[in-house]
Amino acid sequence: MRNSLVEARQAFSADWPEATRQVQGRRWGLIRAGDSGPALVLLPGTLGRADIFWQQIAALHGEARILALSYPGAGSVAEWAEDIAALIDAFGLEGATVLGSSLGGYLAQYTTARHGALCGGLVAANTLPDAGIVTGLPPYALDLDHVAIDVLRDGFLAGLQNWLEPGHAYADLAGLLSGEVHGRIPEDQMRARLKALKHAPALPAQVLPRDRIFTVESDDDHLIPPPVRVALRTVLRPVRAYRFTAASHFPYVTRPAAYTALLREVLGLAPVGAVWPEGGESRM
């Protein structure tokens, strides 16, 4: 059965293949795009590589300097934050806005708090203010070093089963994510992502000014419940909280035009097509 999202992502990846770069002995995957404009670093969640943001990269690469990352097969949140800072410095992206979704959102918060002098903005998207929230939940409650990888993968796939039903609004998204689970994210990288969040340190106080802090959430996000969304906004006090009514945990995939529109706003780029309504907190 055809999957329009998989086909579109594959076409993008053929034109924008992922490169690799060693940082402190860890092998990062990366996509660099654009040579002028504001700098943007994109950090995926557990189920996604750098190209999970293909729709935003394709739309913005002519107006922004973009670095999208895939996580290495080892390391912690603290170590990854140091690596990201090193990459920002190495590629001349000082002042970059760092957007992270889910796991990436936690890492983005840690990175900007530790390296505020290098970072010019934070977009904490569909994410947590406290990693301790997940430690007792599957799969984080498992022994992530020794549990069979098939158990971890089956757990992710079980969570996607309802979406795979024919006619479901997120059926193509579920098919896309199933490919990530089935091996696009290798075993060492999958374990490293889960362990990084399970053992993540508490977030330091944010050092960026409030007018450079933004959040993104979805009303139908099945992984980030409403109280956690409220807690994130309470801690970060974002200048703008972007809020989707129906976009899932992956609004950059399911609502790409709107997601690109909010990034244009965050980066100070002229709007093209879809724009967000005015106000400190927006719903779309």
Oligomer: single chain
Q: Evaluate the radius of gyration.
A: 17 Å
Question: Strands across the major sheet, in which order?
Answer: 1-2-4-3-5-6-7-8-9
The CATH topology annotation reads as: Rossmann fold
Mean pLDDT: 95
List unreliable stretches of 5+ residues: none
Structural class: alpha/beta
List the helices and strands in order.
HEEEHEHEHEHHHEHEHHE
CATH class: Alpha Beta
Protein name: Maspardin
Pfam family, one: Abhydrolase_6
Keywords: Cytoplasm, Hydrolase
InterPro entries: AB_hydrolase_1 (IPR000073), AB_hydrolase_fold (IPR029058), Maspardin (IPR026151)
Please describe the structure with a list of short key phrases separated by commas or semicolons.
284 residues; alpha/beta; Rossmann fold; globular
Give a description of the structure.
There is one protein chain. By secondary structure, this protein is of the alpha/beta class. A nine-stranded mixed beta sheet has the order 1-2-4-3-5-6-7-8-9, sandwiched between helices. It is globular. Helix content is 39%, strand content 18%. α3 crosses α4 (103-114) and α5 runs antiparallel to α6. It contains ten helices and nine strands. It has one domain (7-134, 202-283): Rossmann fold, CATH 3.40.50.1820.
